[in-house]
Amino acid sequence: MAKTALDKDLDKVVRLETATHDLSRSLAGPGIALVFLFGVLIWASVSVTQGPLSTLVIVAAVIAAYMALNVGANDVANNMGPAVGSKALTMGGALVIAAICEAAGALLAGGDVVNTISRDLLRPEAAMMDAPRFIMVMMSAFLASALWVNLATVVGAPVSTTHSVVGGVIGAGVAAAGFGIVAWPMLTAIVASWVISPALGGFFAAGLLALIRHTITTQADRISAARVWVPALVALMIGVFTMYMALKGFSRVWRPGFVTVLALGIAGGAIGWAVAVPWVRRRSEGMENRNKHIATLFRLPLIFATALLSFAHGANDVANAVGPLAAIVAAAESGSSQTGSVVLPIWVLAIGALGIALGLALFGPRLIRTVGEKITRMNEIRAFCVAISAATTVLIASALGLPVSSTHIAVGAVFGVGFLREFYSNQGLVRPQVSANAFMVDPRTLNATAEDALANDQKRERRRLVRRQHALGIGAAWVITVPASALLAALLFFVLTSLIRF
């Protein structure tokens, strides 16, 4: 029956309401972000000590908040993606866990890497740079890196915010005082860490997956093997986390020695093992002896490993959000570009912590799905290997005060897992299934069919395990980020210095 004019009008109203609802949802995130930036403006106006450079510090605080939003939107996806892709966590659960742990890591343990970003990359004393000019350098670097990461988030590219900040600082510094201002030995060490960190992430993840495969998933009695090895893996995870918290998490109030840290790690691992043994036994009772069911035993450990990784990321990458701001505050208070050791006001760290958490909640889901679903297929075991290996690498880097890229580490771990499984497949560990009826046909036809099935199966397996086109795109983004943010920072420095005179 044909629609009446009233039905058509009602359909138009419904479509208009749907479009309005979708538009309001798309504008809610930017609106909340603007409210946050305005709140930071008010907060900084109250927190900053009045002085000749206080206005620049307040503006820099707003830029820092903008950068923190972008760090949360882009970088945190690397931590949450595997857990969401394996269906161990829902998107909402991942956002809540990440927001809490990222903020806690930034506030409790975000210190050493901030000094590296804010103080060690440039040598302003070599160019006799005064405080106002040094502040302009840092503001230009800050704004350039934030704009670049924002653009990458819009197009769905998981770039490294560490790359962006370092590139911005170098570009603005060279524009202000030439190549002599850059501390090239420090830059060399950082660049080396960018190469080494994804390799380490991939190596640790592949090694852990190989261990689980050898000890659990290829055993005849997988349940008995899991009752032995899953608690051991949980003990390893808890021990690493305990050692890190003792070494870094409470460094502002307590600095234990190496022996104490090691003892606490062993004790934490023992407690984790003691708790995990009865838990694994209860969960495995009546379970089918299949890898799909064994993988569910890793779900809760994966959630804890993801939380650990988020804490480590907050400690390490808060430098990307507030490192230049810390240097700006120190230069404004001292009146000199030679700030020495940067003391972090709590309001500076709070901007980074809150901004990262809010950016994740508002803009993170898209990139979480990209990392968790589009690079390789995940289950709980593979995601656990990625999370715990990436967490260990980031924790070590943060303890050493080295601003490695968590993007490189996490993506390297993802590809390490995928390529290891692909290696097993190429070694003939994945075989096509031939039915009994196949033996009723001509042997030559059977051989051809089996060969075709094997070839097609291997092709499908390669596509399913590692999507190489994403590796090329991610690699291109990594290469472009440093020069792009450096050039943008240099341009912004020239623009800002032409508009603001001191």
TrEMBL record:
Pfam families: PHO4
Localisation: Membrane
InterPro entries in alphabetical order: Phos_transporter
One annotated GO molecular function: phosphate transmembrane transporter activity
One Gene Ontology CC term in the entry: membrane
Membrane disposition: Multi-pass membrane protein
Name of the protein in question: Phosphate transporter
GO biological process terms held by the UniProt record: phosphate ion transmembrane transport
Family: Belongs to the inorganic phosphate transporter (PiT) (TC 2.A.20) family.
Keyword Transport: yes
Keywords (A to Z) from UniProt: Membrane, Phosphate transport, Transmembrane, Transmembrane helix, Transport
Protein's organism: Arsenicitalea aurantiaca
